[in-house]
UniProtKB/TrEMBL annotation:
It comes from Scopus umbretta (Hammerkop). GO terms for cellular component: membrane. SUPFAM superfamilies: MFS general substrate transporter. This is ACATN protein. Pfam families: Acatn.
Length: 238
């Protein structure tokens, strides 16, 4: 129902924009930065060959490895330990106002000549929160009782998520501000698209690898069959 409602809202608003929004014909169109797909990829290749851009791309592709497991696996592990999925979904509701306000606050600090300073300062705190998330997963089964989980447990989870959002948005807004600042205005769209794509890829591939490594790195013990190993999926099922 949620997805259906917002899907309808997106369709209606997009259709209204298409029908009602008119282009300003008085303005003379600027010269296109590229003439076709081939030119675009040739331009992207020439940008990425620049030493500074290449170094930055390598940095941003590996910068999020340290907290990929905490970001990708924590919620799944909490559900595995018995936290209801609907309760975790409800905890996301108070995060919405925070997600709206945070970019407005952080943008004041990223508007200067060195926007990446905010990125650097937020990183150690986000790494520490990864350790805190690991402690949270370890602590979860210890506070569980027959009726579920106490209120103070959800308060700790909510506070942890809020602190995580602060560090996440500090890094996100900083990297977006930096990309906007260094992009050549003559080819701004292509330049920013390249940097933002690399930035998104740098967040996605570590999470994928972290999810893939969860099963082989999880230590399992067989209850009632000491001589049996449960290291593999097949053995665990047996």
């Amino acid at each position: 129902d949620f997805l259906f409602f917002w899907g309808a809202v997106f369709l209606v608003t997009t259709t209204l924009v298409a029908l009602l929004k008119k282009e300003n014909k008085e303005l003379t169109p600027t010269k296109e930065e590229t003439k076709g797909i081939t030119d675009t990829y040739r331009l992207l290749f020439s940008i990425i060959k620049m030493p500074a851009v290449l170094t930055f791309c390598l940095l941003i592709l590996t910068a999020k490895v340290g907290f990929s497991a905490a970001d990708a696996v924590t919620g799944l592990k909490l559900v595995e330990e018995g936290v209801p999925k609907e309760h975790l979904a409800l905890l996301a509701v108070p995060m919405v106002p925070l997600q709206i306000i945070l970019p407005l606050i952080i943008s004041k600090y990223t508007a200067g000549p060195q926007p990446l300073n905010t990125f650097y300062k937020a990183m150690p705190f986000r790494l520490l929160l990864g350790l805190e998330f690991a402690f949270l997963v370890w602590w979860t089964p210890k506070v569980k009782h027959e009726g579920g989980f106490p209120v103070y447990y959800y308060a700790v989870v909510l506070l942890s998520y809020a602190l995580h959002q602060i560090t996440l948005y500090s890094m996100y807004v900083a990297i977006m501000a930096f990309n906007a600042k260094v992009s050549d205005p003559l080819i701004g769209g292509t330049y920013m698209t390249l940097l933002n794509t690399v930035s998104n890829l740098g967040g996605n591939w570590p999470s994928t690898v972290a999810l893939w490594l969860v099963d082989p790195l999880t230590v399992k013990e067989c209850a009632g069959a000491q001589e049996q190993t449960c290291g593999t999926t097949v053995a665990a099922e047996v």
